Amino acid sequence: MQDAHSTPSSADDLRFFNDLTLRAKAGAWAYVILWLCVAYSTGHHREAPYETLWAGLFFLLFLAGRTLFQKKGPFWFSVRPHLSWILFVCLALGPAILWGGLFAAAVTHWPLGEFEILMLVALMGIGSGGVTAFAPLPHLVFTFILALLGPASGVLLFRGEGQILLPMFLAYLIYMQSQAVRQAREYRLSRRNEEALKEKTSELERINAEDPLTGLHNRRFFFEYLQREWSRSFRNNKPCSLMILDVDFFKRINDQHGHPAGDACLRHLAQVLRSLVRRSGDEVARIGGEEFGIFLPETPLEGAVVLAERIRLEIEKQPLALEKGTIAMTVSIGVAAEVPDDLEAWSLLLELADQNLYQAKQGGRNKVIFSEIRRIHLVE
Question: What whole-number distance in Å separates Cα of residue 194 and Cα of residue 50?
Fold first, then answer.
């Protein structure tokens, strides 16, 4: 997790950067509104019209810069992160320095009049807002408050008047910094809690989608995936293939060798399938007791049949080795393929593959039977 006292440099930089820009979103408007309210409510716009005009224009310029940065900042950050941080800091400190300079010019008139007092009150409000906006970076908060109070403090020290304000400024700086540190701690805690929640959610999703015995995806995940890929194949007018395979005489294995040996057979079969079905986008899952499904996007019938026959042969020649001997296994496989022409007809592919599996079982097992819409084929 990112230390709040340093500029982030880890993989979640962009998230941190976006958080800061969003927190600072309303601040740019505050300068424009407060300046107009203070200048016009006290008549300062008549006493110093050029100062009022130019200060207002600069605040509007910073507002435009912050607004543009809100929209383009994430992209700029992805391209030039260090330059983006510099620009962010400039846009954060620029209006604060301007307000601090205007207040410093105002406190040259002592004792303070209505304009100067309102400037001071607005400055305190701006400082509080800056603490909330920039709290994840306490060193930026310190610099921000210093930009607001520093110019006026220098003027008061130089002139020797109004120095009673200096202890108040110092106390305000210390208090705001302590608030920034506290809020930064809360921000880090909330980020940690959010990341922990994401990890827990991801883990629960993984558990809900995984078959605990074989480590493959489970039936629910497989059929959701099948429907998504069917829809994609429909949009792209691409073929897709489905295999359903079943362990031959699995009940006999359980009866003769026991259920732990049967479980070991299923894990062994899952390992063989993983080693053979390796193309990105292909999906292998356990969809029943001893039944497995394999979905092959963008794969015509010919390619699926070649893979199915390879799977059948590999399982046949790779018996499971146990302490008390070996267990030979064979599988029957039903294959179906189609170029989708109906978005909702994915169940037809499943029905064809299931029918072919049934025929493989009825025809003596250890077979691959595959079909298109109008043709039935047998390989043994």
Answer: 50
298 touches 240 (CB < 8 A): yes
Residue identified by tokens 């950067």 is 17
Residue 2 in domain: no
DSSP string for residues in 75-87: HHHHH-HHHHHHH
Domain that holds residue 281: 219-379
The overall pTM is greater than 0.70: no
- pLDDT tens-digit series, residues 309-331: 999 999 999 999 888 889 999 99
Same domain, 136 and 25: yes
Distance from C-alpha of 265 to C-alpha of 246, rounded to nearest angstrom: 12
By DSSP bridging, strand 320-322 and strand 331-338 are: unpaired
3-state secondary structure of 283: strand
Which CATH number do you get for residue 365? 3.30.70.270
The answer to whether 141 touches 131, Cβ cutoff 8 Å, is yes
- The tens digit of pLDDT for each residue in 18-29 reads 888 888 887 878
Angle between helices 165-209 and 219-236 (to 10 degrees): 90
